[in-house]
Amino acid sequence: MPSTPRAAIIPVTPFQQNCTLLWCEATKRAAVVDPGGDLDRIRAAIAKAGVTVEKILLTHGHIDHAGGAADLRDALGVPVEGPHRADKPLLDSLPETGAAYGIDGAKVITPDRWLSEGDTVTVGELTFDVLHCPGHSPGSVVLVSRDARFAQVGDVLFRGSVGRTDLPGGDHAALIASIKEKLLPLGDDVAFIPGHGPTSTIGQERLSNPFLR
Ligand SMILES: [Zn+2]
Ligand SMILES: [Zn+2]
Known about the structure:
The N and C termini lie far apart (37 Å). It contains 7 helices and 13 strands. The strands form 3 sheets. A 6-stranded mixed β-sheet has the order 6-7-8-9-12-13. It has helices at 39-49, 63-66, 69-76, 88-92, 94-101, 172-183, 202-208, and strands at residues 5-12, 17-24, 29-33, 52-57, 80-81, 120-123, 126-132, 141-145, 150-154, 157-158, 161-162, 191-194, 200-201. It has a single domain (5-212), classed as 4-Layer Sandwich (Metallo-beta-lactamase, Chain A), CATH 3.60.15. The chain is α+β, with helices and mostly antiparallel strands. Helix content is 26%, strand content 28%. It binds zinc ion (2 copies). The site of one zinc ion (ZN) has 5 residues, from loops. One zinc ion binds at residues 60, 62, 65, 136, 155.
């Protein structure tokens, strides 16, 4: 019987990004997905859950997702996995992007492990498949637990919307192709946590998302 994933959403940064504390209930081992900032709030959530963080996962390189990754890595002494290498220019320019958006203290982060299509990521006894889903950013990845019917999708797909594609490296056609070719086939019963806003399921978006008609 596979272990059950548990998740706590911690909205961070002025963009109210859904930083997610994701853990394996059997082992109480955890990952922090997309620590964009507000590390005091993230650390409070870790303490409240009573889990041990073993890694940081990044879905993509935008400031609201990755801006706090370097500081959290230093504070916890854990490796950073993801996103895909195509987001390296975004990660290398986090200090400048932070300054432009009024977010102080963002540092360059170089992941300990870049992720590619077909890779797997573990959290405790949980296993997530890596899907490379470019479009919102060139290196966006989605993490999916097929056993648990659960995915972290970053800014690829939202309830009722899709990721913006007007930022550097954005490509709307590529984004829609990523969603239709990689996310919809996961199955209607797969629930997901997006980078912003409420959670949803693949089935709900297949039926009602106006960008997927
Ligand atoms: Zn983004
Ligand atoms: Zn975002």
